[in-house]
Amino acid sequence: MDLQFSKEDEEFRSEFRAWLDTNLPQDMRTEDWWRPKSDDEQFQIRRDWEKKKAEAGYCGIQWPTEFGGRGGSPTMKAIYDEEMAKANAPRTVNPLGLAFLGPTVMAIGTDEQKAAIIKPLLHTDVIWCQGFSEPGAGSDLAALQMKAVPQGTDYLINGQKIWTTNAMHGDKIFTLARTSEGAKRHDGISMLLIDMHQPGVEARPLKQITGESEFGEVFFTDALCPQDEVLGGEGNGWMTAMLLLSFERGSSAIGQYTEFRRQWDAVAQIAKQVERDGKKASQDPVLRQQLANSLVDLECLKYHSWHVLTATSQGKDLGYEASMTKMMWSETFRKVSDTYEAILGSAFQVPEYQGLTLEELTTMALWSRSCTIWGGSAQVQRSIVAERVLGLPR
Question: Is 331 marked active-site?
Fold first, then answer.
């Protein structure tokens, strides 16, 4: 494990940090600045800011320069994630496009698709959604039922997708549909690139426990998709989806560690201020132990992230070991949130308590409940590690 960044990496850190200092106002880094703005206002501000960041060369850090990226190394991407988290910078408005669609198009897209998709995605001119899950097809994605029937030069699409991130702000959606019937459930599936601003496509918000509507459900009723808007070729949707999801592998969790450590520090400060049973929560030995345990888990996540970063910097493919990273960061996040809940008791659900503004930590605690489910549930990840990493029998 290499615990040091190169001179070139540190020069990039200084350069990017200086750009953030100049272009990200201090008040924009606080929850108070964002709180009075509507979801649509917040999204547009983030979209404009990210476009500015892309124009300055600070998006697509590892993307090849020929596609508008910086051509950077895995360590530069880790530094980028770390500095973004330290600055409490606005999160990306195109997470699924940047993480999954862009790299897939670079790998297997046609020249026309590369020209039409990559630069507009990077500069937030087009916001992409991912349409995989359906009401009856979540973890068992091969059970999907949405149909795409050839009609002239188009497909006629009917069906529904659910748990669609950015559904209410999406311009286009990369989605899986059945374009033909096959002998196996994985056959006959294609990945379509569909315009969401057309008759027959309706996005409806899903209200989350946090009060936000980051997710939505999308209904397709006789919607159209040109037959040349297929990524990876007709009938190859399953393999295209597996390639697309593989780009999550090998990513270091340094950015997550930095964000979670900042939240842990905030939780520790809260423990020094709120009272439980007539004394400060920080004086309770059980709560102190829980704080310490969650900090230990955080530091383990940090060193695991360094291990991943060292391996990927050496060109190694971690493969199924990436499931360990997903388990570690999601469960560590849950433990930090559980500690916060233990300190406040049932009051963790409210935005203000004993004169303290807690909205950011309350949102964290509520949101953390989902992180061990989406992106591969903890149970599924444990099975992958047991069978593929440790070689245990099924």
Answer: no
CB burial string 371-390: b at 16+ within 10 A, e below: bbeeebbbeebeebbeeeee
Predicted confidence (pLDDT) per residue in 74-133, tens digit: 899 999 999 999 999 999 999 999 989 999 999 999 999 999 999 999 999 999 999 999
Which superfamily does 128-242 belong to?
Answer: Butyryl-CoA Dehydrogenase, subunit A, domain 2 (2.40.110.10)
- Please write down the HEC assignment for all residues of the chain: CCCCCCHHHHHHHHHHHHHHHHHCCCHHHCHHHHCCCCHHHHHHHHHHHHHHHHHCCCCCCCCCHHHCCCCCCHHHHHHHHHHHHHCCCCCCCCHHHHHHHHHHHHHHCCHHHHHHHHHHHHCCCCCEEEECCECCECCCHHHCCCEEEEECCEEEEEEEEEEEECCCCCCEEEEEEECCCCCCCCCCEEEEEEECCCCCEEEEECCCCCCCCCEEEEEEEEEEEECCCEECCCCCHHHHHHHHHHCCCCCCCHHHHHHHHHHHHHHHHHHHHCEECCEEHHHCHHHHHHHHHHHHHHHHHHHHHHHHHHHHHCCCCCHHHHHHHHHHHHHHHHHHHHHHHHHHHHHHHCCEECCEECHHHHHHHHHHHHHCCCCCCHHHHHHHHHHHHCCCCC
φ, ψ of residue 300 to 5 degrees: the values are: -65, -40
User: For 254-389, CATH number?
Assistant: 1.20.140.10
Angstrom distance (rounded) from CA 358 to CA 370: 20
Q: What is the pTM of this model?
A: 0.84
Q: Residue 253: which pLDDT band, with cuts at 50, 70 and 90? A: confident
Q: Give CATH 2.40.110.10 domain extents, the chain.
A: 128-242
338 alpha carbon, distance to own chain's centre: 21
Instruction: List Cβ neighbours of 296 (8 Å cut-off, separation of 6 or more).
Output: none
Among 202, 214, 234, 248, the active-site one is 248
Is the pLDDT reported for residue 323 higher than 90? Answer: no
| Structure token digits, residue 32 | 């108070």
Nearest residue to 220 (alpha-carbon basis) of 166, 176, 181:
176
Question: Taking all residues of the chain, what is their mean pLDDT, rounded to a whole number?
Answer: 90
